[in-house]
Amino acid sequence: MTSSAEEVDRLATWEDRQVGIHRVVPYVGLAVGALLTTAAPAPVGLSLAPHLLVAAAAACWITWFVTLHPGWATRTGLMTFYYVGLIGFGTVLVLDSPWYGFFAWAGFLHAFVLPGNWRFAGVGASAVLAATAQGGGPPASLAHWLLWFVLLAFNLGVAGAVTWFGTVADRQHANRKRLVEELAEANRRLAETMRENEGLHAQLLTQAREAGVIDERQRMAREIHDTLAQGLTGIITQLEAAGQARDRRADWQRHVDTAIALARESLTEARRSVRAVRPEALESARLPDALAELAGRWSTITEVRADVSVTGDARPLHPEVEVTLLRAAQEALANVGRHARASRVGLTLSYMEDVVTLDVRDDGVGFDVTGQPASRAPDGGYGLTAMRQRVAGVGGELAIESEPGGGTAVSASVPALAGGAG
């Protein structure tokens, strides 16, 4: 049995061979054999009428199975039946007259309707008929038998070689056709995959856009809290203090001047935040100096002592890391000023090999860490949330230790990522 691909290929080969010589040869062979047999009949054979009837029947056989129904070439059993009939007609005609050896060649050409290696059997049967016709009829003597075997070997060699190369060519054609079909299927799957990837890419772009919007909103929320909210809180505090010091001209003016300075600083920082620019303190100074300046301004406003110490080898860090530590210090000091009622604050910046840590400790009233820290903050505790988001955003960790009456310690540890000059 042959596979469906081989059947389709065999049909294509057979249809190709129906054009031209492969279609004409059987009829020409019958016509030439009939004409020569009529003009020069063999000494021993059928009478004139029977051999013409057999030739006509053979022509009808070929016409019905091949000419009128070329699509039957894929029906293996039916074509095998046709070929057996073809050889049968050829045997009768060749035994009647050697001139029908011209018709015997149709067996070589039409052997391709047989499946697989059966076509070689068909070629062998056709070679027997051709050798018998070429030898002038069935062998009748030893010399005749020798001649017949020589003719048989010649026909088998030539026709077998042609059939072999034809079979190889058919198989190569089938393989090429199968490869083309597989390539077409692979291209189809690739096209489907590309369409799926386009959809996935569009989905990822949408998700990335949405994530970018969320990140930008969170960034703006943190920046507003770190600039406008804290600045406004400081301004309100200074204006309230100025209101209480109306009778003391010097104190009133100091509080008003401080409020104006805070307003200008907050406005500048808000503009820089909108443009996603580093804080001004880090543009003109290194991180330890920026922390010292921040602590000094905070002490001036709150009248609470703030000490800054640096351990380890101070070095420039990635800009985002330095901004994170500066904002963490700013938020921690703001919380101390609003809630701790502390008399002293210490800021320690520790440079280690892989980590940089900022510790902010106060001696204030403290709070219950296991309770609700948000109760310390009138803004609902967003400052601590923003601080955690900033520290986590650079791969760091934020820890808070406190207890009622025992002060508070805030520690931010971030990777020591190298960067440009601070």
Automatic annotation (TrEMBL):
Main location: cytoplasm
EC number: 2.7.13.3
Stretches of the chain forming a coiled coil according to its record: 169-203
Gene3D superfamilies the UniProt entry points to: 1.20.5.1930, Histidine kinase-like ATPase, C-terminal domain (3.30.565.10)
Reactions accelerated catalytically: ATP + protein L-histidine = ADP + protein N-phospho-L-histidine
Highest rank taxon of the organism: Bacteria
Alphabetic keyword roster: 4Fe-4S, Coiled coil, Cytoplasm, Iron, Iron-sulfur, Kinase, Membrane, Metal-binding, Transferase, Transmembrane, Transmembrane helix, Two-component regulatory system
Statement: the UniProt record of this protein carries the keyword Oxidoreductase: no
Classification via InterPro entries: HATPase_C_sf (IPR036890), HATPase_dom (IPR003594), His_kinase_dom (IPR005467), Sensor_HK_TwoCompSys (IPR050482), Sig_transdc_His_kin-like_C (IPR004358), Sig_transdc_His_kin_sub3_dim/P (IPR011712), Sig_transdc_His_kinase_ChrS (IPR017205)
UniProt keyword annotation of Iron present: yes
Chain intervals for the UniProt region annotation (Disordered): 403-422
Function: Member of the two-component regulatory system NreB/NreC involved in the control of dissimilatory nitrate/nitrite reduction in response to oxygen. NreB functions as a direct oxygen sensor histidine kinase which is autophosphorylated, in the absence of oxygen, probably at the conserved histidine residue, and transfers its phosphate group probably to a conserved aspartate residue of NreC. NreB/NreC activates the expression of the nitrate (narGHJI) and nitrite (nir) reductase operons, as well as the putative nitrate transporter gene narT.
Protein name as it appears in the record: Oxygen sensor histidine kinase NreB
